[in-house]
Amino acid sequence: MSSFFKRRNGGKSTSSLATNEVASQSPPVSSNASTLTSAVTASSSRIPTSTPVVSARPASRPTYTCYTCHLAIPPNTPHIHAIRPLSGERRYHQQCFICLHCHLPIDPQSQPFCFGEVPSKDGSTRREHPLHRECFADYFGWTCVVCEQRLPSVTTGDGTNNGGSGGGTKFEFLKHPFFERERMCPSHAISRRGNLDGEGDDQQQENQQQQQVGSIASTEDEIGEIRRCAGCHRFEPIFASPNKHFIDVGDSDTGRCVCLACCRTVVTTSQDATPLWEKVIDFFEGPLGLISSTETVSGVSRQNLMSFPIMVVGLDALNDNLKEHSEGVHYGSSQIMTRGLCLSEHSPVSEESIGVTAVLCLSGLPADLTASILAHEATHAWIKLHPNFRYNKPLPLKVEEGICQLVSFLFLNDGLDPSFEEHDSSSTTDESIPSDSKLRQYFKFCIETDESVYGEGFRSAACAYAKMGLQELLYYVALNHDFPPMD
Prior knowledge:
It contains 12 helices and 22 strands. It is α+β, with helices and mostly antiparallel strands. It has a 3-stranded mixed β-sheet with strand order 1-7-8. It has a 3-stranded antiparallel β-sheet with strand order 2-10-9, with no helix packed on it.
């Protein structure tokens, strides 16, 4: 399990009792709470609850208007008085204090409730509406993608709001770092093997569950017994309907799988990768200007990059070649390490590379991701073939991998055909399945947020690229074996 789980709890709610009438003062709960951004790591969401006491209002008070039905509230009639930070003061008939989700009345004396922010139809304003505590999760989509059940919640504080002591409800879950609705019950992350083997107890499982609440890493590693997509790293809904289950890639006993979104363009053979490699070469020749269309002794030509095979292989074959070429680069990243490899042969008596022998790419990945990996490996090949870079004086790992990741990122931005938010007519309309455009955004997000030497190198390369462009950056790196200093 990732070591950088974090916990973030929302604010606690309080309530105050106005004289002889119902009062509730709890912070607004925004619908945005259910769609946290990829830049924020969130582990929980707190829902304010209130259980005020209903009592009659003296007849001497003026007549109020019900917020729901807009009719007068007769004197001496018990009613609900809510003071909201966003919407201000509100009053309701008891029968008009209705849950936005189930449309049933809320009894504030016996039913925990909260307010949720909902945008108006034109999106210009946001209004607060009461909901039952359990309805809040259903209405705003706080459900587990694995079992499709409501996310577990726990009561914080003393569980009541009497006397302003404060209490609330907190959702706990594992969250995908990019896809907003990818949340999973923490219990799914606990491997059942311990119990099957007679190991572990309930307290140990509870402690393990508490440690695993938070945002997770962008890898395809299993969490407990839940598989993750090899392309977008979403959780497999194994307890949902069978038509939502992920599809096995077929890598012997590796358990690798792809989701329905990534399966739309999955690359499984070397023939599938050929047109993607041609797009990479076109990008190198056109927008990047790194290769020439004819043979040259002072650089790299298109023919040089088209002279070796592009092979889509399984995980075992890729790992075997990684071990065989362990003296090279390609280690230290959870995202690139086992996805691509550039193979080359070198003369023991010459400083120059004899040539690139092959580029390997992992099978079972969506086309955009496969293409970005090929762009990364093509940059390795370009460096090996270019006369300014000597084999016996290799670039530092951070520098070479940073440049390769920069080119891969640029290719995702400008080298592929435009993607569209909407699926074509033959695609599913299930909103839980990301579009090709969303997947491409995630692949760029992985490059930007990688915490390994790959990510560090990319961020340094990107800063230098913004100031001097790619060709000048490569010329500087060839001379200095480092990135230029950034002010």
